[in-house]
């Protein structure tokens, strides 16, 4: 196994020796879909626009992190394509010395028409969230239309030759677990990676063990139809368990946060749209980089704030039942 986390600055190494070279930045709390596992039924209180990070502030924090060893940056939301300056943000991130991968996670509804410009500005990788291949079910699950536009975005991304095109599918029993094999079939002729994600608890998403389909069950159901999957030799910090299928252009993966956590190799840090740094997706400890920047802190000062937060990162997040009971932000507020 290989790892790229060995060359980060001491401030990005936690108390358990984990180096962090991967930064995820949420660009907005708004979304044009209303997926139940992400958006609470009664919505969320949006942060005022002037309290969100500006493009200049995003560029600055990326520069600070990149100088300390971060080489992968993913832009998330909410829905990042709702930011009119997305292309500008991508250009700033991809042009930062040290950054080798710039990626976006999106629902794909309005993505297709912006893909050419995003690629021209340095976007290298793309994750598209899609939980069903049935148009009517898409409208039920997202409470919006747009299924055909999401598929068109995936197809265009493949045509444009991005380094990586992934389709993220949160699997929920009784909603879309009957489509596992249909999603696998997408990888037959398309160079995409379909990632099946265990349903995770966040504020307002009505999580329960009855709704969650485990990695073991998903893999067993797929292998019953396709035969044994071949495991890829993943780096230690890889969050997904990746597999190939004979004769398929694409591949399938499983993100097993609930039943088989990958905390031991975690290399991720998150900045939310309001500028708060979150060192663990499931942790409720946060520190504001926005406030530090706006109070006149130097880059070195900000790096020290980051370092202190990283040193407080725990060895692992709690188990799924404990997570369901603890306070955390809704997923829409954290960023995918």
UniProtKB/TrEMBL annotation:
Biological-process GO terms, alphabetical: Mo-molybdopterin cofactor biosynthetic process
Organismal lineage: Eukaryota, Viridiplantae, Chlorophyta, Mamiellophyceae, Mamiellales
Cross-referenced SUPFAM superfamilies: Radical SAM enzymes (SSF102114)
Limits of the Radical SAM core domain: 15-242
Protein source organism: Ostreococcus lucimarinus (strain CCE9901)
Cofactor requirement: [4Fe-4S] cluster
InterPro entries (UniProt xref): Aldolase_TIM (IPR013785), Elp3/MiaA/NifB-like_rSAM (IPR006638), MoaA (IPR013483), MoaA-like (IPR040064), MoaA_NifB_PqqE_Fe-S-bd_CS (IPR000385), MoaA_twitch (IPR010505), MoCo_biosynth_MoaA/MoaC (IPR050105), rSAM (IPR007197)
EC number: 4.1.99.22
Gene Ontology terms for molecular function: 4 iron, 4 sulfur cluster binding; cyclic pyranopterin monophosphate synthase activity; GTP 3',8'-cyclase activity; GTP binding; metal ion binding
Keywords, alphabetical: 4Fe-4S, GTP-binding, Iron, Iron-sulfur, Lyase, Metal-binding, Molybdenum cofactor biosynthesis, Nucleotide-binding, S-adenosyl-L-methionine
Pathway: Cofactor biosynthesis; molybdopterin biosynthesis
UniProt cross-references to PROSITE patterns, sorted A to Z: MOAA_NIFB_PQQE, RADICAL_SAM
Name recorded for this polypeptide: GTP 3',8-cyclase
Reaction catalysed by this enzyme: GTP + AH2 + S-adenosyl-L-methionine = (8S)-3',8-cyclo-7,8-dihydroguanosine 5'-triphosphate + 5'-deoxyadenosine + L-methionine + A + H(+)
